[in-house]
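dumping the sequnces here before i forget
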Amino acid sequence: MLFQVENLSSGYGKIDVVRSLSLHVDVGEHVGLFGPNGHGKTTLLRTVSGLIPVNSGRVAFRGEDITGLDPRKIVELGLIHVPQGNQLFPEMTVQENLTLGAYVSRTDKSKASNFEKVFTLFPRLKERRSQRAQTLSGGERQMLSIGVGLMGMPELLILDEPSVGLAPLIKEELARAISEIASSGVTMIVVDQDVELLLGICERLYLIEKGTVSLETTDVSQVDQAEILEMYFGKVS
Amino acid sequence: MTPEAIVAIIASGLVSGSLYALMASGLSLVWGTVRMFNFAHGALVMIGAYSGWYISNRGGLAKVLQPIGRNIANNSEDWGLIGDILHPLGEWILSIKAGFGLLLGVPLAIIFCGIAGYVIYIFLVKPFVGKPGADLVVIITTIAGASFMQNGVQVIFGPRYKQLDRILKGPPVEILDTAIGLQEVLIIVLTPVTLLLLNLFLKRSKLGLAIRAVAQNDDFARLVGINVNQIYPLTFVVSSMLAGLAGLMLGGLFFILPTMGSEPLLRAFVVVVFGGLGSLPGTIIGAYVIGLIEQSSAYVFSLYWAPVVLFATLILVLIFRPRGLMGGENS
Ligand SMILES: Nc1ncnc2c1ncn2[C@@H]1O[C@H](COP(=O)(O)OP(=O)(O)OP(=O)(O)O)[C@@H](O)[C@H]1O
Ligand SMILES: [Mg+2]
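..and the predicted 3d for all of it:
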């Protein structure tokens, strides 16, 4: 098993947002997380990448216990977290952002070829390599955000809501790129509201409710669309 | 206004502007990354001047070492093998009666300021990083640190005024019949070179890039694997080295005093606010604008009115541009 979360609890202050949550990801797997807003998906991801302290439970990655490890060490092990809201270094160029994605020394040798990979995947970024990140469009920023993640040579790539707020056309383009990353053999966790998008990429889905896993499914057809709609929008009477 | 007066005003404006630029860019760098103001920054200017003097001047370190050197040189014959090895050392110490000179004094003083900046970070800043209200607490702790350094220097060096040797010796440069001292010319030329090097460091080196990354988005910086806990002290070190250089320049123009950094620190704060918090280009442009405004108003009105004109300009600029000349969204 590549990645395992066991009975994890964490949150802000004394309140647990993630409550005794367990999940696992095997090598080569693509796992989707979905669920209503504010139920702790981002908090879970921020906890496993070391930004938020663990209150209880355990996180293991590549056979190592990474619970409470410094984010830097976790990145060095190859767990790369592309955060929600296309976070970037806004006043730096596309090139500089990508360079910083390859900050850890593990990536030094393959830096040039990683640049190539990112630019083949997102040709727009190549065109805009000397443009500041804050002047990019929303879709381009999301591409750059993922590109920065790829520069870190992920053993496990975690994407938090890559499609949120994007126009359909850009969303499609992005979904295609993410599928391409997935089929190139990168193990992934993708969080998104758009279950359709997740179904196109993932073999397994977890439904996260109230900070814990309330449903796990490998048979994607099992997930009842009506049930999901009801969950997001409330009961339609 | 005569052309001579204009040249003189521009020259002295550029000298003040240079000193402010060196100091303010350090303040701005620390603010941008750590989100704190280092009120010991003026004391670091003073430390730069004193340590430069101590290393370079005949009355400083060289004087302290003389008895030791004499002791080694005279007695080493009785110490056997160790004496044979130490003897040349003693001779060498005796030969540097006149001090180590500025060639050694300047770089060593700058390094010493870097170390002092690190110590300030570890003792006065680090304990509060990430705690609520840290920015206010650190104002107090760094003021305390500054006062500790000022009084310490007063105790160690006594009340006698000191002055650094001039780095370049020779007749002043004449521009349009106006004489400008070589020290001033050196300051005017050396500052942009230093700022250019700082810019190269921030844009080209891995650590420089990391400093800017932490300044722009520290959360994301953590997620690409930057050790933020290492970047904070690094910015303090770089910023303190710039302060030290400013002190060395100032010490060649005026007397070296324990309080010599206080007035320039106040100006540097004005510059940082004027130029736009956290914006390095804004800070540098602001520094030269403030320097020139100060010197020209001192000439046109009087020395006493210069600060009034300065603050009036600052307020006026802030009314129309509340974030300063070049303050952006992120500052
Ligand atoms: N920095 C914070 N401080 C305090 N509470 C927070 C903080 N960030 C999030 N929360 C709270 O934690 C809960 C879970 O938020 P989280 O962002 O993990 O949800 P999410 O499932 O990712 O939602 P979304 O789908 O909207 O991204 C929410 O109630 C939120 O208000
Ligand atoms: Mg979220």
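Strands of chain A lie at 3-12, 15-25, 30-34, 56-61, 64-65, 79-82, 156-160, 187-191, 204-209, 212-217.
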